[in-house]
Amino acid sequence: MPRLFSEPKPSVAFDAKRALGYLDQLCKLGSRVSGSEGMTKQQTIVEQHFTKLGAKVTRQVFNAKQLSQINPVSMTNLVVTFHPERDKRIILCCHYDTRPIADQEPDRRNWTNPFDSANDGTSSVAWLMELGHHIKGMNLNVGVDFVFFDGEEYIFDNRVGADKYFFGSEHFANDYFKTRPRHKYIAGVLFDLCYAADAKFPVEGNSQFHAGAIVNQVWTTARELNEPMFLAKMGTEVLDDHIALNKVGIPTIDIIDFDYPHWHRLSDTPDKVSGDTMTRMSRVITNWLSRIK
């Protein structure tokens, strides 16, 4: 587990307007379902963006077969590396695929309509794209990897025990476990449904169980910065991409808004995402990062 310096650090000059511009750019691609043309276009945009910022971008390409589908599909995790020479590293991650069905729409006839999935995944991609402008200029003692997981939302049959979730994070975790690279991930933060105007973040149960020290560090940092989005109470347990990382020894927490009303609905559009929430999240996370010894 990382140890922290005691004093808060200055915040980065996060540009919310630019972050929302990235969000609009990605949503205008349309659906970005795993293996689709939209996903391919998104991968190019994200890869070129971080390469221009001087980061190293690695593609993890693998095939995945969904239970309800006849054919496998090619998926790609993107790993964006800052300060690759540093062996002690932190993961900031999210999924970047969109769901093929809007399965929380009340009218089932609308399930197959394309939708933006703006806050559910895309906003975290945009947030990390903006944060990428600032990482190299931060005074950090660790390396940082942004990891974009494919195949988290590749669900066509949402019944319990039907289709499988979390293809990308499981592939990433298994690769880390098998290859045992020189570097070591000492902590991870997963961002999911994070950026609505009224977002609130109680502690997710599996995060507390598997990575309670990281929860304490991040929530304490938020309290010291007088950031009320991070609630001092327990939420429910969720299965998410952080589970696979914790299983291979990467203590990872999930920052998630349990009550986002547009989850898996056609109404999850860019106007639901708040630049102010993005800025406040950056203040907490960059402060936490800069305090890690």
Reconstruct the topology from this structure.
Blueprint: H1 16-27, H2 37-52, E1 56-64, E2 73-82, E3 88-95, H3 118-131, E4 143-149, H4 167-179, E5 184-192, E6 201-203, H5 205-224, E7 230-234, H6 242-247, E8 252-256, H7 275-290
Parallel strand pairs: 3-4, 3-5, 5-8, 6-7
Antiparallel strand pairs: 1-2, 2-4
Helix pairs in contact: 1-3, 1-7, 5-7
Relevant terms:
two-stranded parallel ribbon; 7 helices; single chain; 293 residues; alpha/beta; six-stranded mixed β-sheet; globular
How would you sum up this structure, described in words?
With 293 residues, the chain is of the alpha/beta class. It is 33% helix and 19% strand. The chain has seven helices and eight strands. Strands 1-2-4-3-5-8 form a six-stranded mixed beta sheet, with helices on both faces. A hairpin with an 8-residue loop joins strand 1 (56-64) and strand 2. The chain is globular. The termini are close together. The relative contact order is 0.21.
